[in-house]
Amino acid sequence: MSVKIRKSLVASALVGAVALTSSNVMADPLKDIHNVEGQTIKAAQKSQNKIDNVFEQTVELKAEYDTTINQTEILKVYNDHLARLVADQNAGIESLNKQIKEIDTTKRNVVPLMYRMIDTLEQFIKADVPFDTEKRLDRVEKLRELMTNSSVTTSEKYRQVLEAYLTEKDYSTVVTATQGAINLDGRDITVDFGRVGRIAYVAQSLDLKNAWVWNNSTKQWDKLGDEYISPITDLIRMARKQKAYDIVSLPIFGAE
């Protein structure tokens, strides 16, 4: 009986040992599997993080690339624009250089022309009806002084010469009345002058009893008949805004 009991105890001990051994054997592989699974998950997370970082860097690089491409296109358009501007400026410079050469040639031709114009203007004034003669000849003299002034441009000199011609032209279109003196038989007589452009230049004594007309052919004053005294009086009054303009009968002697 005791032998059986021992055998049973031994068997039970063996079974327990086997069961314990089996339990340890089963537990270790599961633990290893869990460890491997955890490491795999961590490795996957690291890989995903790397992928995410690479993706973000790729997106940033793509954006930088697109920006660079856009800037390159903008710069290309701008450079083409600058190239056209430079070409236009070069053409403008070439045109200006050509014009400068032409201006130099024009200056050489214009300066002698202006001197001839001034001389002609002086000759015309001396041959013209003798009104404001001193003032008009003084203008000519100032033009000659202007021509030798190095601080005045050629264009300004030419402008003033033309202006003098325009002033002389305007004398032909006005009606004026002034007071002065004429010399008759060696004595000066104070008179009122009346002028209609260059076609009639008359004088009348202050007492309204005598009248004269300038004869530009003989360069002297010719006495007029009494029939002209009233018309000349009206002319002088009209020129002085003392009478409305009207038709008057006047003797005509103009510059030749």
TrEMBL record:
UniProt organism field: Pseudoalteromonas spongiae
Name of the protein described by the UniProt record: DUF3450 domain-containing protein
Upper lineage: Bacteria, Pseudomonadati, Pseudomonadota, Gammaproteobacteria, Alteromonadales
Keywords recorded for this protein, A-Z: Signal
Protein's UniProt keywords contain Signal: yes
Signal sequence interval, chain numbering: 1-27
A Pfam family that the UniProt record links to this protein: DUF3450
Keyword flag Signal: yes
Superkingdom in the source lineage: Bacteria
